[in-house]
Amino acid sequence: MDNTFAEQLRNTGPGALMEKMGLEFLEVTADRLVARVPVKGNTQPMGLFHGGASAALAETIASIGAWLKDTSKVTMGIEIKVNHLRPATKGWVTGVGVPIHTSRSIAVWEIRMSDDEGRPTAFSTATIAIREPR
Fold first, then answer.
1. Whole-prediction pTM value?
2. Structural domain that includes position 39
3. Does residue 24 carry a catalytic annotation?
């Protein structure tokens, strides 16, 4: 993990929801963010990784990735689409996010999620607003 970005994340944390979900950052660079959450504790009643957990992981990766471009700004998700491809029932779900488009006010990220065997579990695009703090 890049030391500058790692220090910024240590100072801010991933946010209360991601802390409750058990998020871990694996790689953080200017153009790629990799994070994972455990399946255990993040399931729906049938024991499958919850679709909302996929969405939360994807939006967190995109929002933090956009924020790291300029930490003086505020970033927040304004649109997210998640295609669920395969259920995860154990281990971890890892998300790999890369920016598709970034401007002064909008960023669009692609996030691919997979299980511990590398099989795709979900695919997401997230649009992130970039704003001046109030």
1. 0.92
2. 3-131
3. no
